[in-house]
Specification:
The protein is of the alpha+beta class. The protein is built from 5 helices and 25 strands. The chain folds into 4 domains: 38 residues; 87 residues, RNA Polymerase Alpha Subunit, Chain A, domain 2, CATH 2.170.120.30; 91 residues, RNA Polymerase Alpha Subunit, Chain A, domain 2 (Beta Complex), CATH 2.170.120.40; 83 residues, RNA Polymerase Alpha Subunit, Chain A, domain 2 (Beta Complex). The chain starts with a helix and ends with a strand.
Length: 314
């Protein structure tokens, strides 16, 4: 037991002997390891946004090939530098494409703002193929695209009209040449009300590489009226109110109203009248023809002839 106690004290003395020096040595070893580790080379890939400077409209040319939104950079440097890089802090790269004679654009190291001591070992992509086309501007009529039907009892009084009636399309001549008109997105007729309905409508997306000049929306005006039908009834005998007779003795009438109501009219229920009681029996004259017995919702749009000549009694 005595020997064991001595051994325990010896271990304790060994562990605590020069404790400060031992701790300092451990800290120095950790720092040295971190410095050496941080100085080692490392690689990392980051993505940088691409901003293109395109030729002005008066150049007569436009780019039709697709441009990448980003370019991937493979960076090499010390581990500490690589780990400290924040992709969002690398500004976008601006590529100058104002020269329409270029067929390829090649990325270069000096275009990118990376930290000192960090090198770019690879681009992805390394270059961009450039395809140019003749730029044209062409005005085209707008065609409203209507779907569905108006609510019961309503119809369009006249064709839908767009304001403005035409828009200008800008794009490559090979694509714009085949266009004849521009359609709107579908307009639902089931939501219209009686009267003038001005509705905002977006234009359908133009073909690839083309765009609209200005706002890609128009106003479509829908003139909504009651759903009316017309029916012509001929040979109605004119009843004379008063003495004498009239010429002609029969007239025709054009009825107008809701389709169902107009079709339901029975000619025998109608009465054409001419009131001559206010005329001089000896002098004659003309009087209008009135149509009586019309059902609700139906009107006499016109009578032919609208007036008749009074024939005094002999």
């Amino acid at each position: 037991m005595k020997i064991t106690g001595q051994r325990k004290r010896s271990f304790r003395e060994i562990a605590t002997h020069n404790l400060g020096l031992k701790i300092a040595s451990l800290v120095a070893a950790i720092v040295l390891f971190s410095v050496v580790r941080g100085a080692e080379d490392a690689q990392r890939s980051v993505f940088v946004d691409v901003v293109a400077l395109l030729p002005p409209p008066n150049s007569g040319k436009m780019l039709v090939s697709e441009l990448p939104d980003q370019v991937r950079l493979t960076l090499k440097g010390s581990r500490s530098q690589i780990n400290a890089i924040r992709p969002e802090n690398i500004p976008p790269v601006q590529i100058d494409l104002t020269d329409t004679d270029l067929r390829y654009y090649y990325f270069a190291d000096d275009e990118f703002d990376v930290p000192a001591g960090v090198t770019i070992t690879q681009f992805g992509p390394t270059s961009i193929a450039l395809d140019w086309a003749q730029r044209v501007e062409r005005p085209l009529p707008v065609q409203p695209r209507l779907v569905g039907q108006p609510p019961d009892g309503l119809v369009l009084g006249e064709p839908a009209r767009a304001e403005p009636a035409e828009v200008t399309v800008i794009g490559p001549d090979t694509e714009v040449a085949d266009l004849r008109a521009v359609q709107t997105e579908p307009i639902d007729l089931s939501q219209v009300t009686r009267g003038e309905n001005p509705l905002a409508a977006a234009l359908v997306r133009p073909p690839p590489h083309t765009r609209y000049q200005g706002d890609p929306t128009v106003t479509v005006v829908l003139d909504v009226v009651r759903d009316l039908a017309e029916r012509t009834l001929g040979g109605l005998e004119v009843d004379v109110v008063g003495p004498g007779s009239v010429q002609p003795a029969r007239v025709s009438v054009v009825l107008r109203g809701a389709p169902v109501a107009v079709e339901a009219v029975v000619p025998a229920t109608l009465r054409a009248t001419a009131d001559v009681t206010e005329l001089d029996p000896a002098g004659g004259g003309t009087v209008p023809v009135l149509i009586q017995g019309l059902p609700e919702g139906v009107e006499a749009a016109s009578v032919e002839p609208a007036s008749v000549t009074f024939v005094p009694p002999s």
